[in-house]
UniProtKB/TrEMBL annotation:
EC class name: oxidoreductase
EC number of the protein: 1.-.-.-
Annotated source species: Gordonia paraffinivorans
PANTHER family: 5-KETO-D-GLUCONATE 5-REDUCTASE, SHORT-CHAIN TYPE DEHYDROGENASE_REDUCTASE-RELATED
SUPFAM superfamilies: NAD(P)-binding Rossmann-fold domains
Coiled coil: none
An annotated Gene Ontology molecular function: oxidoreductase activity
Protein name (record): Uncharacterized oxidoreductase SAV2478
Swiss-Prot/TrEMBL keywords: Oxidoreductase
UniProt KW Oxidoreductase keyword: yes
Annotated InterPro entries: NAD(P)-bd_dom_sf, SDR_fam
The family this protein is said to belong to: Belongs to the short-chain dehydrogenases/reductases (SDR) family.
């Protein structure tokens, strides 16, 4: 798909990968609605992109907000062609993670994708075209040491993207799934007061597994993959080798991950 002239929505667009995606899309000729829970950040990104972008604040997992975002896009630019389900949350730890936090992470990392697809895919099927880009994580293909809600929901978001691709790919709906390792964002490196031992372990695991990329590097890779309509987007190519090793001998992979975890704790 050529993104020039397309209308896109980017959730979590107030910074990080989302902000970089919004910039890259506008530079490539798209019109963008930037949405984020942080209203000032979303507005700042949109303002920096001129007339090609507008902002709206709200919860990416809310049906009401998703509908309001789509209506804003239609009003300002026209029918939505692309949806970047990028908003994510990295909070959580081990088995002591409470139910309310589980619900929050499930909503933001998974149900937001389901609800957005429910809103847009029927229209795309009627038009014969549309593109859904899911930001998951290498954790969704492998796992995430130190954070069970993040690991589980990212696995689920990969699974949903796969299902969407298989079920509606023949209807003209294109689907890609972004699965990076370390990216220099607040999700990887939160404010100091938010860091607990589980977060420290998660951060150490990610930073020692491979290079930490900039958000602009990731956004450029995403647009290249979209142009090729490629499902799996891997800014860290080594993730594919890790995934193959996991599938080739699951028990060996699990033993290796336990050794890796021990080394991180040591």
């Amino acid at each position: 798909m050529d993104v020039a002239g397309k209308v896109a929505i980017v959730t979590g667009g107030g910074g990080g990968i989302g902000g970089a995606l919004a910039r890259a899309l506008v530079e490539a000729g798209a019109k963008v609605v930037v949405t984020d829970l942080d209203a000032p950040s979303a507005q700042q990104v949109a303002d920096s992109l001129g007339e090609s972008a507008v902002a709206i604040a709200g919860d990416a997992s809310s049906d009401e907000h998703i509908d309001a975002t789509v209506r804003l896009a239609e009003k300002e630019f026209g029918p939505v062609d692309m949806y970047f389900a990028n908003a994510g949350i990295g909070r959580g730890g081990g088995l002591d993670t409470d139910e309310s936090l589980w619900d929050l992470v499930l909503d933001v990392n998974l149900r937001s994708h389901v609800r957005a697809a429910r809103r847009l895919v029927p229209e795309w099927i009627e038009r014969g075209s549309g593109y859904f880009v899911s930001t998951a994580s290498a954790a969704g293909l492998l796992t995430q040491i130190g954070n069970v809600p993040y690991s589980v929901t990212k696995h689920a978001s990969v699974g949903f993207a796969e299902w969407l691709n298989i079920t509606h790919g023949d209807d003209g709906v294109r689907v890609s799934c972004l699965c990076p390792m370390g990216v220099d964002t607040k999700l990887l490196r939160p404010e100091a007061e938010e860091v607990n031992p589980d977060q420290q372990l998660m951060q150490k695991a990610v930073e020692t597994a491979g290079a930490v990329l900039t958000t602009d590097e990731v956004a450029a890779i995403v647009l290249e993959a979209v142009a090729e309509e490629r499902f799996l987007i891997l800014p860290h190519p080594e993730v594919l080798d890790m995934y193959r090793q996991k599938g080739a001998d699951y028990d060996r992979w699990l033993r290796g991950m336990r050794r890796y975890q021990r080394s991180l704790k040591g």
